[in-house]
Amino acid sequence: MLNDDESYFAKEESVWHAFVEAITLSLRDYDDVYADATHLGPGSRKKLLKAINAKGYANLNVNVIYFNVPVEVCIERNKQRDGRAQVPEEVIRNMANSFTPPTFKEYIKYNLIQEVNEKGEVIHTWQSF
């Protein structure tokens, strides 16, 4: 969606709407849909759930998978990317500093939160039932 000369956040609003639309379209066809995104805090995560609920999916069975990956691992993996896929290191560090991990209280009406490490291993699970 971005031109080579645009900043990473130049079309943030358009990307947001495309993201929500893609999720809700997938919900029509699949039982399991993963929203792969960096939601930095409770406010942005609540915004996503509210947008999906507004599209008619208020009774979703939401399972939160939280990847707890050290910022240095993210930076090393990012260096393996090419072109626009490579995110400026400053952006990664700023996002890491702004991130608030999900809490069980935040997702109390949903079923499950899993914390996953950089190897893809589940290291902690909170369950509501």
What kind of oligomer do you see? single chain
Percentage of residues in DSSP E strands: 5-15%
Helical coverage, percent range: 25-40%
The SS-based structural class is alpha+beta
Instruction: Sketch the major β-sheet.
Output: 3 strands, mixed
Radius of gyration, taken over Cα atoms and rounded to an integer in Å? 16 Å
Order of helices and strands: HHEHHEE
- Number-wise, the strands total 3
Number of domains: 2
Q: Give the overall silhouette.
A: globular
Number of helices: 4
User: Strand arrangement, largest sheet?
Assistant: 1-2-3
pLDDT average, as an integer?
Answer: 82
Our measurement of the CA-to-CA distance between the termini, rounded to an integer number of angstroms, reads: 41 Å
Write structural notes for this entry:
- The structure is a single chain.
- This protein is an alpha+beta fold.
- It has four helices and three strands, in the order H-H-E-H-H-E-E.
- The chain has helices spanning 12-29, 42-54, 71-78, 89-98, and strands at residues 63-67, 112-116, 122-127.
- Strands 1-2-3 form a three-stranded mixed β-sheet, with no helix packed on it.
- Strand 2 (112-116) and strand 3 (122-127) form a beta hairpin.
- Helix 3 packs antiparallel against helix 4 (89-98).
- The termini are far apart.
- The model has no long low-confidence stretch (mean pLDDT 82).
